[in-house]
């Protein structure tokens, strides 16, 4: 449902109360998705905006339009066709598009995002109809600044999602098709946190591709050359980052689906100087940590006493490790080095050791154990590690289906009364274990969270909810907090504040048979709480640049809600083109419109 409006803050740049200025009339108005209401324009608006004769006579409510749109959506033959229908609807009517998803979020989430969006990305060049987003390529580094500058003035862009398309949704290198993941993530920020859709910018950095199918496809739209790496790649990324920072100094930058060897180092390089975030590293880590904290509350184990094994130490696995390590350090006062000793990482060579040296990625190094710890114990198999460590938490980010065997789950349950077991690999076919098996093998004691949605499981006459570690419950609220506070940086303390706010919403805190995390359908309310926590910490840390942020809890919440965009038809107020802002001209978020 739409947020309650707070007109005392209506004068804010992102305020959503009252009418919207609009300088467009006739066909130009109907062809501008952000303002278009279709048959929903009132009789008065039709007269003032010269729409009579351009629309059928019957004025329809948004609810009537939703019914028609849902019927059309439902008639599509398969999920990919439904995804394509939604893309078409987004290009026609922004409000109707987002409201339709909001009304059917549980059903449509997998259509607009994973797994169906993965199919759309794989078929990007074949389904292409019209360009959306900003396409930058490594052969034209000298044009990056000018190409980015087309999208608005310094105050016009709040949120940028950028990808290089190398590691998309578990389907690998998709080259220029990665633009769709940037678009999809921004759709989620609007749905889940009310980020204004016309103040966002999706970007793809086209560096070529190593996907042979794309290179051999005559219809492929990206650079048809092997992926460029090394110094040339780094200079390209740096040119983009410096240009984005200069052109849109208030914008928050979200990295998405960069490759294993680039994701962490790029984040580490730019994080000290600007507000940026990597969902694969930090988002996965934050939402998993929130589930762990809720599970530890249920099992009555302190965070600083916890032992965790992570099976799969890639971008996601080490990202989770980092968030857990940082939270332990913040809670206990331990150094990060000591906090890392609570975590054991298992990857292709088995348990990670310092003797692996050059085989370790920079992100894995701090979790490698001293060889002297394991002289008489098997290092290679997960079961041996679990028997030796006796962890409270087992996390799977391995993409190795079935790797959490009956023996492993039984061993977990033998040494801790409420083991926290999290098979997080996506898509579903890659999960480390099925929740119903985990529940049975642990005799109903396991607290389970997964990377994909699963129905509740039953054991011995009781039903247990399975929490989904869905990043969408976390990253949109973090982004909203950074956007509204105009944060200079996104600090570790701001992330920990976000995690605690999410964990506090866990249904399991009231009923241990409920999920460790709230359902995605409640995510807009969750985002308000997360944004509040992030903003408060930004203010305390001196990282907030926005003036007039309310200090008391109730007013701060009202201030946040007023600036969250909702998919509702607001009244339009006709203004002259001479005095119109870019917003009133429908030009925000559009390249080449002056």
Automatic annotation (TrEMBL):
PROSITE patterns: MALIC_ENZYMES. The keyword Oxidoreductase applies. The active site is at residues 113, 185. It catalyses: (S)-malate + NAD(+) = pyruvate + CO2 + NADH; oxaloacetate + H(+) = pyruvate + CO2. It comes from the Eukaryota. The keyword Metal-binding applies. GO terms for biological process: malate metabolic process. Residues 281-539 form the Malic enzyme NAD-binding domain. InterPro entries: Aminoacid_DH-like_N_sf, Malic_enzyme_CS, Malic_N_dom, Malic_N_dom_sf, Malic_NAD-bd, Malic_OxRdtase, NAD(P)-bd_dom_sf. GO terms for cellular component: cytosol; mitochondrion. Keywords: Metal-binding, NAD, Oxidoreductase. GO terms for molecular function: malate dehydrogenase (decarboxylating) (NAD+) activity; metal ion binding; NAD binding. A divalent metal cation binds at residues 256-257, 280. Residues 90-271 form the Malic enzyme N-terminal domain. Its cofactor is Mg(2+); Mn(2+). (S)-malate binds at residues 426, 470. Divalent metal cations. Prefers magnesium or manganese. Pfam families: malic, Malic_M. Belongs to the malic enzymes family. NCBIfam families: PRK13529.1. This is Malic enzyme. It comes from Venustampulla echinocandica.
